């Protein structure tokens, strides 16, 4: 394995016997008994371990907590239940692992940016932050049902199905739950739930500002400066700690993209920073190198930008950056979907009707569909069953209200085989039988849905930066930041007449007003059209010897016909991107896997 990763082992004699002999380059932390507890590869700055008697606490990832402070917190822990207080006291996005008198607790983040997977290997429970590590230990096969669902639905596939591992013998802990081992037995239990939305916009903005300030600790680092409100906010927060930070942006191909204008104003205000702008002729084209090997953890859906992301990581690394901040997650966090209208209609009907009219006018919602969505939101299980029933239907109008338990309708592409379509439907029905709301109402459910959907992919983007030796930081996915936003009454920061009002108020006085008043968003259609034209032949060559086709899941002839046909819109391109991710993941997963824990060695 070339990327950082770790395993958690129980305090059992059988676990100690799993280690093998080849351990060059692998770090180990022990239980109080002396048996191995944490095993992996990580940068020294990414791990802090605190001890107090039989208690061990480890924070792995993005948190400013020091080992001394963690030791103080460990001294207050007498049982695994006390770890709840530790989790709530820390900022950042991290894994928290505890061992108390032989019992073990492992948890990631509430958004899923940090995941926990587990399995049994040789009769011993094992956990990890990556599914592929466990697949090797458990000698697991590919779960073709889940793979078919990924192929069919791509980026539109929401939680919990998009969080299901693609290895048959590996289980995933849902974000917001923790994994607990006692006496060798494993169980999952909730540790987090969304806070109630009771605060005003003004008070909530203060909490968001404080939470973001706690999450942005730069050191020797860099930050994206696209010109948008999200990344620009992080740049100005980082500059308060280190005015000489490095900023990075891509030049645009689209003549109508006004990102450059807003970025220029920010660059003038950040006059002590070093600014790197990668010109268009230096950037890899969109879809460049589609056949470049990918990670075996899970399919990466942002494949059209993968070459550019790698180039960006290598660029900031060459300038000495060890940590890079990006504004991913800002759109999902600060632009609530209209599901909040259900609660608002019951509590403040006059305000709700004003919002409904504004949404309908801006998004051109049909009157009947809007009324039906508000009066009959349905159930989560019903939504999944409806998607299974209509999976092979044509894609309908984009002008439809998003008021229920999903965001986009799930529609399969014509290049799936009949077997793949059958497997995908089974996966959707299975999810309907198990799915539960992610919140107390449709608005809260939608808020967590979009965050967890995005986190699933940006977690993999962090891996591309890790390949270049850079830690990618995404503060908008940090638990404390998410909590601060969710506490604000949704209708106040979802006002259709304003663009991201909560973030704008939180950054007032920190970010230039001209940026906070921006109401446009960059357009990258020219990049996409040019990249597809230049790399279309390479994409088609990739599927001439397809691993997906070899399993009977993909019809290459139908795929070729769809790619070569005139494109009325970006729907085929949008579906092609995650398909490439599935193909490259399957090639990596089909390679013979190491069966020992020394797979973590470089």
CATH class of the largest domain: Alpha Beta
Count of distinct structural domains? 4
Number of helices: 24
Distance between the termini: 6 Å
Our Rg estimate from Cα atoms comes to 24 Å
EC number: 6.3.5.4
Pfam family, one: Asn_synthase
Keywords: Amino-acid biosynthesis, Asparagine biosynthesis
Pathway: Amino-acid biosynthesis; L-asparagine biosynthesis; L-asparagine from L-aspartate (L-Gln route): step 1/1
Give the arrangement of secondary structure elements.
Layout: E1 5-8, H1 13-16, E2 27-30, E3 36-41, E4 47-52, E5 55-62, H2 67-74, H3 83-89, E6 93-100, E7 103-107, E8 116-121, E9 124-128, H4 131-138, H5 144-153, E10 171-173, E11 177-182, E12 185-190, H6 201-215, E13 221-224, H7 229-241, E14 246-250, H8 259-269, E15 274-278, H9 306-318, E16 323-325, H10 330-334, H11 341-347, H12 349-363, H13 367-375, H14 380-389, H15 418-434, H16 442-467, E17 471-473, H17 479-486, H18 490-493, H19 501-506, H20 513-516, H21 525-542, H22 547-550, H23 556-564, H24 571-589
Parallel strand pairs: 13-14, 13-16, 14-15, 16-17
Antiparallel strand pairs: 1-3, 1-9, 2-3, 4-5, 5-6, 6-7, 7-11, 8-9, 8-10, 11-12
Helix pairs in contact: 5-15, 5-24, 6-17, 9-16, 11-12, 14-15
């Amino acid at each position: 394995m070339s990327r950082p990763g770790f395993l958690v082992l129980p305090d059992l004699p059988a676990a100690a016997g799993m280690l093998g002999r080849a351990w060059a380059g692998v770090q180990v932390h022990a239980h109080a008994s002396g048996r191995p507890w944490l095993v992996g590869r990580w940068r020294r700055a990414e791990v802090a371990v605190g001890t107090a008697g039989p208690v061990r606490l480890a924070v792995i990832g993005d948190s400013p907590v020091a080992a001394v402070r963690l030791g103080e917190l460990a001294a207050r822990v007498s049982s695994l239940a006390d770890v709840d207080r530790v989790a709530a006291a820390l900022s950042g996005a991290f894994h928290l692992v505890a061992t108390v008198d032989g019992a073990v607790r492992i948890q990631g983040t509430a958004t899923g940016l940090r995941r926990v997977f587990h399995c049994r290997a040789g009769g011993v429970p094992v956990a990890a932050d990556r599914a592929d590590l466990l697949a090797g230990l458990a000698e697991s096969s590919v779960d073709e049902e889940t793979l078919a669902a990924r192929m069919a639905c791509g980026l539109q596939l929401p939680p919990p199905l998009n969080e299901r591992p693609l290895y048959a013998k590996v289980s995933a802990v849902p974000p917001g739950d923790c994994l607990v081992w006692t006496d060798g037995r494993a169980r999952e239990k909730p540790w987090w739930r969304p806070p109630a939305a009771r605060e005003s916009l003004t008070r909530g903005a203060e909490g968001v500002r404080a939470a973001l300030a706690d999450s942005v600790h730069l050191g020797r680092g860099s930050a994206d400066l696209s010109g948008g409100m999200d990344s620009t906010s992080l740049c100005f927060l980082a500059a308060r700690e280190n005015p000489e930070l490095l900023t990075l942006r891509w030049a645009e191909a689209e003549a109508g993209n006004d990102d450059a204008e807003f970025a220029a104003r920010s660059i003038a205000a950040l006059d002590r920073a070093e600014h790197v702008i990668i010109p268009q002729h230096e950037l890899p084209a969109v879809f460049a190198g589609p056949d470049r090997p990918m990670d075996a953890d899970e399919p990466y859906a942002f494949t059209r930008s993968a070459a550019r992301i790698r180039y960006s990581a290598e660029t900031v690394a060459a300038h000495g950056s060890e940590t890079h901040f990006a504004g991913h997650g800002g759109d999902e966090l600060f632009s609530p979907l209209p599901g909040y209208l259900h609660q608002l209609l019951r509590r403040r009907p006059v305000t709700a009707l004003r919002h409904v009219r504004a949404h309908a006018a801006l998004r051109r919602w049909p009157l009947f569909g809007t009324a039906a969505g508000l009066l009959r939101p349905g159930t989560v299980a019903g939504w999944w069953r409806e998607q299974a029933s209509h999976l092979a239907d044509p894609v309908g109008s984009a002008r439809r209200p998003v008021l229920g338990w999903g965001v986009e309708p799930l529609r399969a592409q014509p290049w799936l085989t009949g077997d793949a379509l059958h497997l995908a439907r089974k996966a959707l029905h299975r999810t309907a039988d198990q799915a539960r709301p992610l919140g107390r109402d449709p608005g809260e459910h939608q808020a967590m849905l979009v965050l967890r959907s995005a986190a699933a992919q940006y977690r993999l983007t962090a891996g591309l930066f890790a390949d270049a030796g850079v830690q990618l930081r995404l503060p908008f996915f940090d638990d404390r930041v998410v909590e601060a936003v969710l506490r604000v009454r949704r209708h106040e920061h979802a006002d259709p007449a304003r663009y991201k009002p909560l973030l704008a108020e939180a950054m007032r006085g920190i970010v230039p007003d001209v940026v906070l008043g921006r109401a446009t968003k960059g357009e990258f259609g020219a990049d996409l059209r040019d990249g597809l034209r230049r790399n279309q032949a390479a994409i088609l060559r990739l599927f001439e010897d397809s691993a997906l086709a070899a399993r009977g899941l993909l019809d290459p002839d139908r795929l070729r016909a769809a790619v070569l046909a005139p494109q009325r819109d970006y729907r085929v391109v949008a579906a092609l991107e995650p398909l490439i991710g599935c193909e490259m993941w399957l090639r990596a997963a089909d390679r013979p896997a190491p069966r020992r824990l020394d797979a973590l060695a470089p």
